Structure formats: C-alpha cells, structure tokens
Amino acid sequence: MSASHDGESRPRNRASRALFEVHGRGESPEDQSGERNLLLSFLSESAYSSLAPSLEPISVSARQVAWRPEGRIHAVYFPRSAVFSLLTPLQHHSPVESATVGYEGVVGVPILLGVRASHSLAVVQISGEAARVDAERFRSWFAEQDEPTRAIFYRYSYALLEQTAQSVACNRKHALEERCARWLLATRDRVASDEFPLTHEFLAAMLGVRRASVTVALGLLQQEGYLTYSRGRLKVLDPAKLEETSCECYRVVRAEQERIMGGMLGAVQQESS
After folding, report:
1. Residues 79, 109 share a domain
2. Each residue of 188-218: pLDDT tens digit?
3. I need a labelling partner for 204 at 20 to 30 A (CA). Which of 47, 172, 241, 246 fits?
4. Which residues contact 153 (CB under 8 A, 6 or more apart)?
5. Are 187 and 125 in contact (CB under 8 A)?
6. Does residue 104 share a domain with residue 203?
7. Which pLDDT band holds residue 73 (cuts at 50, 70, 90)?
C-alpha cells in the first residue's frame, strides 16, 4: 500500500522486508520503525500512533490459552516472536490445528469481523513475545480507521482463510510424514530459527494423530538427516530436503501469503526505490 493512497508516510525499514525474514527479539519497540509484527508495521504512522497506547507488550508461554471454544474473546494478540495455533475442537476427538499465526498476523480475526466468540481454540504454540489489545478497545479503534487501514486486516483475514482451507485438504489427503514436514517448515518460518522447542505430544495434538505416529514420522526424518531431535528441542538441518518431503501445502500457503500480503509490501518497496 503506497503513501499516496492515504497521505501517510511509512517507516523506511519496511522497504527491505520479506514476509519471513529474521526478526530480533526484545521488549516492545520504542516506535513503529522497530515494530516486529508485520501487520502493525504496515499501518500508517497515524493509525499506529492511535493504537500504540493500547498495545500491551506481554510474554506468552507454550500451551497458554488465548480463548476457548464458544467463550468470549477478551483480547486481540499481535505476535512479535511468539507463535499461536488455532485449533478446531471435535466432540469425540482431540482438537486439530487449522491454522498457525506468527509475526505475520493477528490472533483475533473474529473481533475485527464483528464476532465476539469463536468455535475455535487459540493456544500458544511457541513461547515468545506479543502485543495484546483489549478486544472492545480494538473494535472501537478499528471502526474509526480509514479504508486503507481496514484493508490491511481484511487482506490478512483472507490469507488466514486460505491457510485454513488448505489445512482441511492437507489433513484429509496427505501422509503424516508430509504433514509433519509442512508443520515444521511453517513453524521454522515464524520463529525465524532452525531450532525451536517441540514435544512429540504437542506435535501429535497439532496434527490430530497419536503420539506414537509422530515419533515414527520424526524418526524417519531424522534418519534421512533432515533434522535432529533431543530432549524437547528440534533442529532443522536441511530445510531444502525437508521441503521436498513436505506436501505442496507448505509452498501453496506461503505463496498465497506472499501474494495477498506482499502486495502492500511491494508498493512500499517501489516507493523507496
């Protein structure tokens, strides 16, 4: 999105960003130029300044619940280094992950669409930092924004919808080893590191399978030399080979996010060139 659309300037540092580049970790940024959440960095200076007083910097831990099924959503989260999972609950089975949200997005799309509760379960996948905003305060702020600002969030909402749709097909049609590789690559993108904490139990819950099945799948990937796993920490050794093992869903979802959200990034890049 260019400044000519809304008359606001944009932070210069965003011109060189890609959707999955490495981000530093630390406390809340002093100003927008240091913002690590992509959606917040896309906001005009005036939009960001009006929301900034409501952005509460927090640290979140793995398995922490953001909201429960059918429960009221009390806050919206903008991940900065943390990663969240959205899971679909089932009456007679464990919930299954339908989408992953990292620094590229926001956990709270129902709120910006005018819905105060969700059938999904939102939990922290990887510990880290985020900015939290009271849900009603965010609704009020969002209602006052201009069309270009609202478009940023609507475009992301569509990208999340596309990711969820792809997950449905992936969970139904693709082999566990392929799905496991996809999940590991997507998480690697969002933590911007080859190494991250992970347990067999948690990965099994995210993929909706038995723990023993995940143990076998990870063992096969480790035998191939694509990763190592020890004492609750996983390290990707060969991301290219891991991507070859993954189903096409990893590439499809990433390409769609680049296409949908990268359009705004491209406009900023053209501006600064």
Report:
1. yes
2. 999 999 999 999 999 998 888 999 999 999 9
3. 241
4. 39, 106, 109, 112, 142
5. yes
6. no
7. very high
